[in-house]
Specification:
By secondary structure, the protein is mainly β. The chain contains two helices and 21 strands.
């Protein structure tokens, strides 16, 4: 009996750690050079030629899936719109870009977006610091706002209580609501941080690494850091960068 209890506890512990690794993987079908067929269910797992691949999460927008039989490692990134981009590396230096043939939108989701200049390096600076965002018919809605710093419910409109993480939350440049939450959201930070632009951030990481790299993805971590995945001649690295431009660390993700 004690052995079964220990086994059950271990299984639950493993599940608790394994679940987040597949939490944000989008649904997609893709074909890669060499005749590789790739498929991912929403939330995981990822399959290569019908085989379940070992999945590793580095941040909310970057995952790697490895198929031991073929020796292929897939790099999976998602953009601001949630669309996946897939590339791969294989044995003997093989590499390439996979063609994504299909994706699944979130059921019932619509976006309430205000136009802004996406080419502005200071992303989010022109976005409002207070918005009214309303979920009608239980649907999920995203409303663009400056989410850098601390965002709070300034005034609740709906009878349904708005609770962060349950029926409202934050994305990089928007607040989302669902389940009937309707409220006025306000950025209460005295001054929202200014994140380094892609080129500036990459330059800081390159200086620390002492090599020229290619930026794969850049994701904000809270209100103080940026997390960059960068390809260098000797492999793929994770660079942690303070928003003041100071590099905290550059660590290898995968060596070549």
């Amino acid at each position: 009996m004690r052995r079964h209890a220990v086994s059950l506890a271990a299984a639950l512990l493993c599940s608790a750690f394994a679940a987040p690794a597949m939490a944000a993987v989008p649904f997609f079908n893709a074909s890669c050079p060499g005749g590789l067929d790739v498929h991912a269910d929403e939330g995981g797992p990822v399959y290569v030629q019908g085989r379940e691949a070992a999945l590793k999460r580095f941040n909310d927008r970057y995952f790697e899936a490895r198929d031991a039989q073929s020796g292929v490692t897939l790099s999976i990134t998602t953009g601001d719109d949630g669309a996946p981009q897939i590339s791969y590396t294989g044995r003997g230096g093989a590499n390439g870009i996979c063609q994504v043939s299909g994706g699944a939108p979130v059921a019932g989701e619509r976006h309430d977006r205000r136009r802004h200049d996406d080419s502005d390096d200071d992303e989010g600076a022109a976005l409002p610091r207070e918005v009214t965002c309303e979920s009608t018919d239980q649907r999920q809605v995203s409303c663009e706002m400056d989410t850098r710093g601390n965002v709070e419910v300034a005034r609740q409109i709906s009878h349904t209580r708005c609770e962060q993480g349950q029926n409202w939350g934050l994305s990089r440049h928007s607040v989302w609501v669902n389940g009937g939450c309707r409220a006025v959201f306000r950025n209460t930070s005295r001054a929202a941080y200014t994140a380094p632009s892609g080129g500036t951030a990459l330059g800081s990481c390159n200086t620390r690494k002492g090599a020229q790299g290619t930026l794969v993805t850049q994701v904000p971590v809270g209100s103080d850091y940026q997390e960059l995945i960068i390809d260098y001649p000797d492999g793929r690295f994770l660079c942690m960068l303070h928003n003041n431009g100071e590099v905290q660390s550059v660590t290898p993700v995968r060596r070549r």
